[in-house]
Amino acid sequence: MTAKNSQSLPVEVLLVEALGHETYLSCLLELDNSTKSHLQARIDPQEAVRGGDRIGLAIDREQIHLFERESGIAISPL
Known about the structure:
Layout: E1 9-18, E2 23-32, E3 35-43, E4 54-57, E5 66-67, E6 74-75
Antiparallel strand pairs: 1-2, 1-4, 2-3, 5-6
């Protein structure tokens, strides 16, 4: 999670799942008025995030996992 800048993805947090040792976020990425995508992110549990927050997410290319929408099959390498 980062401050919003050109290197981060601007997302709206829809759901926060705090599991103790890690926290998962369900987010909505809206790049323009017609392009919206849902994404899941794992963040440090020390970060204070709530549903409805708008945050910037930085992507670590070594840690990203992508999946094909219809089949759910993993897409790799990035």
